[in-house]
């Protein structure tokens, strides 16, 4: 995949662009427009009411990322630490460096967050992620990898709207940022330019820091894929001379990249591995969060095939449909590889071999530590069992390694179109290829993500009434206490921060922190007696008999959290099940005494 240096600009104004360049610019604009329209189609259910609607299958993550955008803007404008906060999980705080803090997004979009609010900014970023992925891959393909524009357009559209990326558009601002990958690959390819290792290393170091702050797990996977691909390519006998010639500048540039990235990321890396509230590994089971072998040939739910009833439920949840390419596309990809191999010159086969090896390695690793097929778990060990306990690997989910496979399939499709357009084909052969691409790709055309109405933020918060009952920086807790299953507390806090109302802190919260088995992480803090009791009431509607021991435990927990006000809205959002508000009010009244009615909430005042 050679790089051509750009033409040097002259000392005067540039001459008029030639017709080919003008056509390229028109194509760029057209692809950008198609990408934006397609991304808007996928997220269209939220555009109806960004503040009042949520992604059905993952409203908790949506609330978390909205909070991260609001907190990041607040930290920027108030001189607070963007990587650690004590606004949630009082009194311990949260290490955001080991969470998906999307710091760059929070900083860049801070003016927009203050202007239109965190939910609308979340939607802008999510839609931009999808559109940016389409255009980013089209740009890389058209400028560096293929000759024909249709090949680049097809590759960009397939990779940008691949099933895995659309699945992660269910509220994952980190994983839906697929545009980061072509940006990084562009930077890696530039490292082989002779004599420009310092400049290219500096640039790639900055790109790595940006990628880390948006999608650290994705950066790790991209680095692994580059290592496998480049290692396989460099070992080819026909490429050894080229490798030896490029290696000195490449290694110098890579060293500069590592140094720049380390300087920019030294503090968040320290927090990540050595800071307070850190943990090692996640609380997610790698056996459950491994890709089902059969999932590669299955269809995802939010596609034309899924709408026709051909979708499957082989993923642990709809957000993790990381492969789901469909059997026709797998057959087409193999056919494309065979045709490209037969027609390729010997030096081009090194690239094809690298694509094939990388796809196979990541497909096998995505299957996790043990074979799972059609939902059946077996005891047959797989290579990931040797890697899952290693640092960094233990913080990643094996099923997400499948996300590397789709871009590699997209490269095969793009290179095949490139070859077919340059080859004399009979009408019958051209029609056969067209039909094959249609059968493989049309079922994967995405349909809009499922969305649902979510409960409005109470007027008690939107009007700023809470400030009359909580001291500046004091602790307020909604009921039930904030968790991934009941994310309203962080939504309220995000509203207050993005509307410059000031700060209130909350106990608990939706985040990853310490306290899991064997020193691993867990979602939220280790529960205390009171929040566990109230969450059980909210989920089941049961009204247990409250004893003096329960009241004493509640008072002790509230003192531990330094709570000044306990607030129960008339309606609250449950991410996985409806919340029983009446039961919550009765049980809390038995614990704390009668509440007072303030605005549109029930409130219990406490002495901190």
Structure description:
- Helix content is 53%, strand content 7%.
- It contains 22 helices and twelve strands.
- The relative contact order is 0.12.
- The model is unreliable at 1-18 (pLDDT under 50).
- Residues 1-11 have a biased composition (Low complexity).
Query: In which order are the strands of the major sheet placed?
Result: 7-10-12-11
Shape: elongated
In total, how many beta strands?
A: 12
Category by helix and strand content? alpha+beta
Biggest sheet layout: 4 strands, mixed
How is the secondary structure organized here?
Elements: H1 19-42, H2 44-47, E1 53-55, H3 59-78, E2 84-85, E3 94-95, H4 103-108, H5 110-116, H6 118-145, H7 149-160, H8 163-168, H9 180-190, H10 197-234, H11 240-274, H12 304-307, H13 327-343, H14 346-366, E4 370-373, E5 376-381, H15 384-387, H16 405-422, H17 427-441, E6 451-453, H18 459-462, E7 475-478, H19 488-498, E8 512-514, E9 521-523, H20 529-540, H21 548-561, E10 563-569, H22 581-592, E11 596-598, E12 601-605
Parallel strand pairs: 7-10
Antiparallel strand pairs: 1-6, 2-3, 4-5, 8-9, 10-12, 11-12
Helix pairs in contact: 1-6, 1-7, 3-5, 3-6, 3-19, 5-6, 6-7, 6-9, 7-16, 9-10, 10-11, 10-14, 13-16, 13-17, 14-16
In short:
This protein has 608 residues and is α+β, with helices and mostly antiparallel strands. The chain has 22 helices and twelve strands. Residues 1-11 have a biased composition (Low complexity).
Labels describing this entry:
7% strand, alpha+beta, single chain, elongated
